UniProtKB/TrEMBL annotation:
Topology in membrane: Multi-pass membrane protein
Domain ABC transmembrane type-2: from-to ranges: 29-258
UniProt record, GO biological process: lipopolysaccharide transport
KW Cytoplasm (keyword) present: no
Protein location: Cell inner membrane; Cell membrane
Name of the protein described by the UniProt record: Transport permease protein
Similarity remark: Belongs to the ABC-2 integral membrane protein family.
Cross-referenced InterPro entries: ABC2_TM, ABC2_TM_bact-type
Location, primary (coarse class): membrane
GO CC terms in record: plasma membrane
Species: Desmospora activa DSM 45169
Amino acid sequence: MFANILKYRELLYFLVHKEVRIRYRNSLFGFFWTLLEPLGLMVIYTLVFSVIIKGISKGVEPYPLYILSGLIPWTFFNNSLKKGTKALSGNASLIKKVYFPREIFPLSMITANLVNFIPAFVLVIAFAFVLGVPVQWDQLVLLPFFILLLAVFALACSFLISVLNVYYRDVEFITNLVLRGWMYLSPIIYPISFVTENESETVRQFADLYFLNPMAVILSLFHGIFFPDQSISWGYVLYVIIFILVMLLISWFIFKRLNRRVGEVI
């Protein structure tokens, strides 16, 4: 797979450039929508959960930084999967005309989203400095690893849903529905202590299952850069690494098997 991608790197660059250019065409704010959308959601969530509905933001100060440091990585993941769903079906005319490794389509979607995600997260770090929040430097040096983990997980999911969506168009609608629920099952608008120290005994009993969600662990890693008490056990990180690698292998295997008839079905 890597040899093929390296061989077609110029095509990959072209697709990424095309995706980024089209995304902001005729847009007044252009690239800044990468940050404006999470900023808008941050204002809404902060207003709702720290002013109108109090309690959920307990233990995380400043709450707007907590929201933003989770929302930016989540937005990357969410957009990557939504775009990834249509990575093959949206390029039907190109797939029918020319042969090249089709893995390039999901990969180009992830790379185009990374182009937006990395500068946006740098602005989150700048926001922390403006608020006077001390950055955990031992966690910040691991930021490239956190981003790699998130990107590979998004790629593994995209391989699977992009090829399944060619055969079953329901996958696109199911993915959108799952992403909505997945967001609320991940620590974006509430800290992990809201689960581990919940008043409900039932919730506390199943708290360990909560961390089987890879996004709960990955988002906690991003939060840990600014909020040391939100850091997570490295045992869970090891679990997520193994989970993502296994999922990448399975997704790629399914992609290669189903890819053979994509040109006929699409």
